[in-house]
Amino acid sequence: xxxxxxxxxxxxxxxxxxxxxxxxxxxxxxxxxxxxxxxxxxxxxxxxxxxxxxxxxxxxxxxxxxxxxxxxxxxxxxxxxxxxxxxxxxxxxxxxxxxxxxxxxxxxxxxxxxxxxxxxxxxxxxxxxxxxxxxxxxxxxxxxxxxxxxxxxxxxxxxxxxxxxxxxxxxxxxxxxxxxxxxxxxxxxxxxxxxxxxxxxxxxxxxxxxxxxxxxxxxxxxxxxxxxxxxxxxxxxxxxxxxxxxxxxxxxxxxxxxxxxxxxxxxxxxxxxxxxxxxxxxxxxxxxxxxxxxxxxxxxxxxxxxxxxxxxxxxxxxxxxxxxx
Length: 325
Ligand code: BTN
Hints:
alpha+beta, 3 domains, 7-stranded mixed beta sheet, 8 helices, 34% helix, binds biotin
């Protein structure tokens, strides 16, 4: 019963978001005033309905001027609203502030949320990082959790982290021309400093994955290097703010394209080619202790293979990686 109500509320919200995407597209393409009548004809809805959606967009922070000539979009807020993600708008849950998108995603999973549902927050009060750390999440960053239900063996689950980190690095390289690299297991670095972190939570049985919630935090328009010397942001690297919605659209596109590669060797090849870890001396801190050695490769499950000084090979499935050389 509760799930039915949840689905109904989601359905209505997603239809509203779809219409907002369409209205924004028409207003942006026109760049000028466009009459209510033309809008209603183009969108196949009544003029009253057009007016209601415009009012809704204004409430979201869009500045839309209305005059006898019709409507004109003059300003879009820098918010990661569902209507800014064409193709995904039906599955985006947006929060101005929340504790952690991981917690919201977990609740949605329990309610049966579909594959590729996304929880986005403008800021988080209790953002979570790997190994129980805090992820400080002020406005200006990009914080989201993507719910995936991949039909792959749980053994391959770590590959989702690899795929997500490759997607973020690719988006940074193609959009801004910055040399984004990967630090095992799933940090994205620029000039050796962390710009993005990924946290995965999984629910699985012996041979099936029920869900993987991929939490991604990107230092976009924040000033992180003041507090954390080993971190940077896109704004700090470029010397100017970025469009967070354009960047997140690029990341989602890369993830979409990366998913079919999950069980293929190409993904590992791509990770290797972007890696800042392979070839270096590293220290891996795991729950069971530490391993020191030269990082020589990753295996088919994404585990890091290390060669110690005496030539012994070890592999690390999870842990914190410190580059020593
Ligand atoms: C890391 O420690 O490197 C992983 C950081 C992951 C942070 C993201 S932000 C969105 C999602 N919500 C959270 O609370 N954490 C993840």
